[in-house]
């Protein structure tokens, strides 16, 4: 054998591991793979299934909550619309009541004005009557004074004045009115 070939047979290939390393590595791999397959993988699947169920349950709950929220929103919007309609109705009623109150107040004011006017007219009429009586008394006194000056007798005494007035009227009736008219 040549020295070069001897050396080649004795040095192993550095890229290939030794056979016992390959066997032991394969045995360890099979043991670890079997342990992983029987112990870890089922736990891992169980955890993934639980998470999937939790996610699906969460999604279902979220869908239920969303449906309830949509229902509550619809109910809220309906109540809001009802509230607005009720507010509009109350506003309309208040406006009608306000108009009625204004009309009533105008009517009361007119009635009060008419009552005040009628009271004022009655008071004016009473004052006019009182003024007429007072004026008649004053005119009567002035007439009596004038008559006493014309007749020449004092007419301050009522009985005497009544007698003088009666006598004066009788004298006037005795006189003929025709010559007085002709002289005028």
Q: What would a concise description of this structure say?
A:
Residues 59-130 form a coiled coil. The chain has 184 residues and is mainly alpha-helical. The chain has helices at residues 3-10, 19-151, 158-174, 177-183.
Characterization of the model:
- This protein has 184 residues and is mostly helical.
- It has a domain at 23-126.
- The protein has helices at residues 3-10, 19-151, 158-174, 177-183.
- InterPro entries: ATP_synth_B-like_membr_sf, ATP_synth_b/b'su_bac/chlpt, ATP_synth_F0_bsu_bac, ATP_synthase_B_chain.
- Keywords: ATP synthesis, Cell membrane, CF(0), Coiled coil, Hydrogen ion transport, Ion transport, Membrane, Transmembrane, Transmembrane helix, Transport.
- It is a single-pass membrane protein.
- This is ATP synthase subunit b.
Mean pLDDT: 83
Helix % is over 70%
Question: What overall geometry do the principal axes of the alpha carbons give?
Answer: rod-shaped
Report on the biggest sheet. none
**Helix count, DSSP H or I runs of 4 or more residues:** 4
Please identify the structural class as seen in this structure.
mainly alpha
Low-confidence stretches: 178-184
SSE ordering: HHHH
Question: What radius of gyration results from the CA coordinates?
Answer: 68 Å
Beta-strand proportion: under 5%
How many strands?
A: 0
How far apart are the first and last residues' alpha carbons, in Å?
A: 203 Å
InterPro entries: ATP_synth_B-like_membr_sf, ATP_synth_b/b'su_bac/chlpt, ATP_synth_F0_bsu_bac, ATP_synthase_B_chain
Transmembrane segments: 22-41
Main location: membrane
Family: Belongs to the ATPase B chain family.
